[in-house]
Amino acid sequence: MTELAILWSILLAQVMLALAMGLALYRMVKGPRAQDRILGLDTLYINAMLMLVAFGIRTANTVYFETALIVAVIGFVSSIALAKFLMRGEVIE
């Protein structure tokens, strides 16, 4: 019974994360300002990372955890680059 509850909980979490990813994608496309679009992108990559972690737990495969770490690092670097671009108008000084 416990394993079934865990599987249903992970499935529910994946559905909620997919819904959050859809809303973040809407904010990226529809955002009135560049800051809104960047926040939508940040939310999208965080939700994608969490979706990979949930899928890794569900399938008991460690490849998804490593992929989630790579997505997190690339997302963080891109967030810093976009924020610097918005502040100064250039990424590399």
UniProtKB/TrEMBL annotation:
Domain of life: Bacteria
InterPro entries linked to this entry: MrpF/PhaF-like
Spans through the membrane: 6-26, 38-57, 63-87
Cell compartments where the protein resides: Cell membrane
Keywords on record: Antiport, Cell membrane, Ion transport, Membrane, Transmembrane, Transmembrane helix, Transport
UniProt topology in membrane: Multi-pass membrane protein
Pfam family, one: MrpF_PhaF
Similarity field: Belongs to the CPA3 antiporters (TC 2.A.63) subunit F family.
Name of the featured protein: Multicomponent K+:H+ antiporter subunit F
Organism, as annotated: Sinorhizobium kostiense
